[in-house]
Amino acid sequence: MENKIQVPSHLAGIEKIYVDRSMVEAPLTERVTGRIPHIPVEVVDPENFPHEALGEGQSLYLKEYKGKFLKFCPGTRYYHCCGYRIIHIGENCPMACSYCILQAYFHDKVLKVWANQEDLFDELGKSFSVDRDARFRVGTGEYTDSLALEAVTGYSRDLVKFLGDYPNVCLELKSKVIDLSWMDVVKRTDRILPAWSLNAPFVNEHEEFGVSTLKERLEAAKICADAGFKVCLHFDPMIRFDGWREGYAEIVDMIFDYLKPENIAYLSIGSFRHMPHLKPIIERNFPETTYIYDEFIIGNDNKMRLLRPLRVRQFKFIVDRLRKHGMDKQMYFCMESTENWQDVFGYTPKDLGGLGKHLMKQAFGD
Ligand code: SF4
């Protein structure tokens, strides 16, 4: 039986655990219910999940997932996508960032965790061993935060342990919380990439709730770097607000109080972009938020993005600042055009041999 844990503050809102009838005996269910034994548990049949009974509090749903666990990132053919693969471990996030795309992806806020881990490991094992020379850059932080639920699920730790047998796979753990409990099971530090999103202090203070501070993230990144890991950083989304230059300069400078450029495998930069229907959701969930009224156009992928000159101005500013600290080819754009690459970096993904291939090399330390 798992020991009860001290629940971290970002999980303090969980009031109920739902478990699929087929998952009652799953090891993950035993672990979660052992770690937070004070939370009431209800066994459900998935077709009768009691959506209407959900209150204001958060619910955790240990579910049997029937789909594919290994997916392609939903990039588009119009912009340069980084070609990374998603290991789907669950959906939704207990934190609240005003810009979070998950608000538009999912119709409820239930924290879903795929409890049939055996099926997940079975599928991954098959996929990763077909050709041991084929390399995979994978991550779990697409439909959820990689580590937000780690204290109660231990999911990433299990995954890290499992991937120890697959040196052809490099796993990125992307998060806005600090949880380093997976570190002691790492076989090869060069196959795990701890990753944190960063933003201007103003954005962290006004648009991100329940998350760690920027200082905490960088302190954790330093612990990882000192332990021999390379880390990844993500400036996504960059947002315009009064004083954005000072704000982004401050956080860029702060990075190098903790890390050296060679500690960073890669660093992505992306401008705030959204499906049109996310805007009213943000208005409703975060009525204080103002950046959604900036000057946007609809891009080729039907997402709203900041007018090109405004985006490029911000990109140039942050890239220049990062370059002054010694950052170079490990910087890349998430979903931008060839023109913007050329204008800001002075080269295109093609010059790097293709973005996917380039990042694969950065991840594997070639
Ligand atoms: S931490 Fe990430 S996944 Fe969670 S609310 Fe913020 S942006 Fe969304």
TrEMBL record:
This protein's UniProt keywords: Lyase
Keyword Lyase applies: yes
GO CC annotations on file: endospore-forming forespore
Pfam families, sorted: SPL
Any one GO molecular-function label of the UniProt entry: DNA photolyase activity
Keyword match Lyase: yes
Protein's name according to its UniProt entry: Spore photoproduct lyase
Organism: Maridesulfovibrio ferrireducens
Species classification: Bacteria, Pseudomonadati, Thermodesulfobacteriota, Desulfovibrionia, Desulfovibrionales
